[in-house]
């Protein structure tokens, strides 16, 4: 089976920065942007230029300074937004304008107060307006996850005919389940007559904890762009996590038959940088980049991993930029783990002496969350 390329569209600086409590300066955005380019993302959504002078400046700065990547700016389906966004990205090597409008009846009725036909006409007009600045136009069909399918097909057909080259299918509220989202993407590709003229993009939110699963399902349905954020930061429960999707596609290439252009060894340093600059700490058990992701504490697991890493690890930690797997000593650890850690510290004992130490170790471990190197030194006296 042919291996397709999936484009990675990073929206850490736009949707990610919309996380409550997060504010990044222009310099911080540039630092993250440089890291994203080095990591190999295809598109950076740098901001929403009309929203504030600071956001305009950030988008413009990234457009001027970052090479080898598409710089994208978000707009509503309004001429003024589009004009401002076009100005902000105009210096980019490859500028993109990302415009769009809601498609669910909920958004049409309560937010936009428009009929379906009015919203479609507004979206088509926005794409035509944006086309005077660039032919790299992405259209977002907001809240596609809760929208009527036939209407979604009509909108996709209309905006592609007007010149959109990427069509974003957001599950804005994190409502969809993987099979639904896969069939939404597949349905668009099958039922929209001009679907071969656009790339379809997954943009998922994590309200029900499904963002990564839905994005991967969208890829199975035929989408060839994924919209993600570092550490999955974003509105409410967040967006799809970049590192989870990239590693799932890499580790399960046998299943997905696609590849990205990401250098996975940069994932952990990038995760740490974004956590530091945003103040959004990563939970210890977070997939791929959490502090515990390559740490083993139970005796059975330690024994397996020390004999052969693949017994309990499907990702070699070096693939994501981590140094190595860790053996964490707790009251659940066994002799093999303790001996390994002592040997790492340069200690080797006779069997008899080791047995005595192991008993002392267990007594100590019962009183602590973790037995650390300092404790081991106390133990060996
Ligand atoms: O979640 C969403 O629908 C969005 C769009 C603005 C792309 O972030
Ligand atoms: Zn979003």
From TrEMBL:
InterPro entries: 2-IPM_HCS-like (IPR050073), AIPM/Hcit_synth_CS (IPR002034), Aldolase_TIM (IPR013785), LeuA/HCS_post-cat (IPR054691), PYR_CT (IPR000891). Gene3D superfamilies: 1.10.238.260, Aldolase class I (3.20.20.70). Pathway: Amino-acid biosynthesis; L-leucine biosynthesis; L-leucine from 3-methyl-2-oxobutanoate: step 1/4. Belongs to the alpha-IPM synthase/homocitrate synthase family. LeuA type 1 subfamily. Keywords: Acyltransferase, Amino-acid biosynthesis, Branched-chain amino acid biosynthesis, Leucine biosynthesis, Manganese, Transferase. GO terms for molecular function: 2-isopropylmalate synthase activity. One of its GO terms (biological process) is L-leucine biosynthetic process. Residues 6-268 form the Pyruvate carboxyltransferase domain. This is 2-isopropylmalate synthase. Its EC number is 2.3.3.13. It comes from Fimbriimonas ginsengisoli.
């Amino acid at each position: 089976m042919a291996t397709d390329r999936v484009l990675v569209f990073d929206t850490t600086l736009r949707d990610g920065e919309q996380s409550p409590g997060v504010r990044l300066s222009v310099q911080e955005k540039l630092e993250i942007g440089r890291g994203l380019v080095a990591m190999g993302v295809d598109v950076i959504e740098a901001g929403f230029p009309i929203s504030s002078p600071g956001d305009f400046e950030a988008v413009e700065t990234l457009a001027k300074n970052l090479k080898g990547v598409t710089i994208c700016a978000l707009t509503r389906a309004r001429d003024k937004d589009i004009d401002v966004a076009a100005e902000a990205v105009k210096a980019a090597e490859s500028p993109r304008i990302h415009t769009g409008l809601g498609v669910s009846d909920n958004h049409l009725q309560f937010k936009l107060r428009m009929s379906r036909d009015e919203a479609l006409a507004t979206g088509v007009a926005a794409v035509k307006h944006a086309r005077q600045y660039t032919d790299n136009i992405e259209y977002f069909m907001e809240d596609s996850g809760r929208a009527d399918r036939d209407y979604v097909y009509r909108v996709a057909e209309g905006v592609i005919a007007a010149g959109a080259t990427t069509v974003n299918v957001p599950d804005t509220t994190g409502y969809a389940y993987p099979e639904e989202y896969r069939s939404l993407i597949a349905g668009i590709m099958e039922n929209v007559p001009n679907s071969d003229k656009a790339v379809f993009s997954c943009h998922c939110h994590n309200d029900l904890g499904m963002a990564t699963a839905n994005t991967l399902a969208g890829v199975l349905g035929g989408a060839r762009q994924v919209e993600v954020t570092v550490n999955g930061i974003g509105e409410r429960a967040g967006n799809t996590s970049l590192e989870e999707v990239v590693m799932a596609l890499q580790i399960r290439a046998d299943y997905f038959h696609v590849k990205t252009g990401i250098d996975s060894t940069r994932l952990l340093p990038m995760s740490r940088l974004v956590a530091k600059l945003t103040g959004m700490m990563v939970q210890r058990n977070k997939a791929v980049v959490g502090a515990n992701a390559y740490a083993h504490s139970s005796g059975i697991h330690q024994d397996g991993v020390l004999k052969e890493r693949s017994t309990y690890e499907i990702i070699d930690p070096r693939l994501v930029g981590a140094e190595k797997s860790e053996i964490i000593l707790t009251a659940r650890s066994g002799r093999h783990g303790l001996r390994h850690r002592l040997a790492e510290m340069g200690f080797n004992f006779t069997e008899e002496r080791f047995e005595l130490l192991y008993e002392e170790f267990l007594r100590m471990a019962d009183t602590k969350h973790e037995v650390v190197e300092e404790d081991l030194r106390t133990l060996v006296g």
